[in-house]
Amino acid sequence: MLHEEVVGRIRDILLDGEIPPGARIPERELCERLEISRTPLREALKVLAAEGLVQLLPHRGSRAAKLTDKDMRDLFEVCQGLEALAGELACERITDHEIAEIAAAHAAMVQHYREGDLIQYYRGNRAIHEGIVNAAGNPVLTGLYASVTARIRRARYVTPMTPQRWALAVTEHEAILNALQRRDGVGLSHILRAHLRHKREEVLQAGFAETETSEPALKIA
Amino acid sequence: MLHEEVVGRIRDILLDGEIPPGARIPERELCERLEISRTPLREALKVLAAEGLVQLLPHRGSRAAKLTDKDMRDLFEVCQGLEALAGELACERITDHEIAEIAAAHAAMVQHYREGDLIQYYRGNRAIHEGIVNAAGNPVLTGLYASVTARIRRARYVTPMTPQRWALAVTEHEAILNALQRRDGVGLSHILRAHLRHKREEVLQAGFAETETSEPALKIA
DNA sequence: ACTCTCTATTTTGAATGCAAAAATGATCCA
DNA sequence: TGGATCATTTTTGCATTCAAAATAGAGAGT
């Protein structure tokens, strides 16, 4: 089995929330499940630790990284910065074809919004933002963005999507698309920052689904 | 020996240019030198591959990542974005003490500049930028910045530092410090972008020291 | 009954061993 | 002499094994 595959599969397990944040990662169990030995598993865990998804405790095993409110704030801040950068770069380089694709994703997303399909809406939302990042034509940026968004998604926060918020988000997305079509880098950068700031406010206000560690609470004296 | 230590030591070896970009990483040799077995070494290599410093070729070993001009451009773009973000955040959060430290680093750097000490000048330069990033108080940002700058430094480009360029860089640093003291986030962000753009132009114009792979050239048919 | 300590078990971290793939080079043929 | 093919050696990737550390548990002492 390829090393990369193991990393990918464990990453998925973590992103799916199958192992909740803070919970211990059962080495032996995962080995059996993936039908590999501990060597490649441990290699994968080290890589994921470098990515920030796993926390290694010397001689005490590895845990799914636990994200504090501060961590989430930090991640959103960086995400915001990366998207703003991507927006500026994308305006310089994006092709008409790529714009059309993003426009299509936007249209699909609006449709899902009208139908009230939250899951599909999120998917479309993600497609738009990833489209912009890809259009920046900078693989380094793409990689960092993927890493940061993965960690954010990991938190599996539940945003109470009020109609007002949906409407705001859709409006902002329209503005984003508009700026892209006008190739207005600075304008897009500002919109993206505002957009993400709104999203961050939602998230932090709601708090994110603090999935319990699958362990007994600490005995406090 | 701690796993982290191995990663750090190999990273240093790579950053020192001891293994030139594109060159094969001699597994056996490194094992002997670090007095470890292949297991922790390979773990470290996988981590460094995730960081982008090492390139893994299935069944063909690992090589020190080779950076193309495009890679360098991409890295500089992202570095620029991260610094701009850091500057904005730093203006909101930086303490007088931190400003004083950066001011001290700046003063020291100017002194080295006057003395023509390039090495120390670079060191001071780095201290200033790292100071700003740290002042942003965002560990996620700090981590990504460290990773990106490490890869850039890895390239060991040789910039022909003309007096004009030095003067420009020093002037820009003064402006940076000034904006920080005024807590002018937007202004600082712009200065940092311009500053890095200048630096990037130098680098790309000069080309970077394309250290030869320590291998015979490919036999071309 | 509670806690402390000492031992046994489990788990982690690293070394070694083994099979498969690639690189090397030696031989054979045109 | 040049090139191709096959055997040998080396290297890679993973499994297994082993020592050390941590955890859990039993027993003794207060």
Automatic annotation (TrEMBL), chains A, B:
<dbReference type="Pfam" id="PF00392">
    <property type="entry name" value="GntR"/>
</dbReference>
<keyword id="KW-0238">DNA-binding</keyword>
<dbReference type="InterPro" id="IPR036390">
    <property type="entry name" value="WH_DNA-bd_sf"/>
</dbReference>
<dbReference type="Pfam" id="PF07729">
    <property type="entry name" value="FCD"/>
</dbReference>
<protein>
    <submittedName>
        <fullName>GntR family transcriptional regulator</fullName>
    </submittedName>
</protein>
<dbReference type="InterPro" id="IPR011711">
    <property type="entry name" value="GntR_C"/>
</dbReference>
<dbReference type="InterPro" id="IPR008920">
    <property type="entry name" value="TF_FadR/GntR_C"/>
</dbReference>
<keyword id="KW-0804">Transcription</keyword>
<feature type="domain" description="HTH gntR-type">
    <location>
        <begin position="1"/>
        <end position="67"/>
    </location>
</feature>
<keyword id="KW-0805">Transcription regulation</keyword>
<dbReference type="InterPro" id="IPR000524">
    <property type="entry name" value="Tscrpt_reg_HTH_GntR"/>
</dbReference>
<dbReference type="InterPro" id="IPR036388">
    <property type="entry name" value="WH-like_DNA-bd_sf"/>
</dbReference>
<dbReference type="GO" id="GO:0003700">
    <property type="term" value="F:DNA-binding transcription factor activity"/>
</dbReference>
<dbReference type="GO" id="GO:0003677">
    <property type="term" value="F:DNA binding"/>
</dbReference>
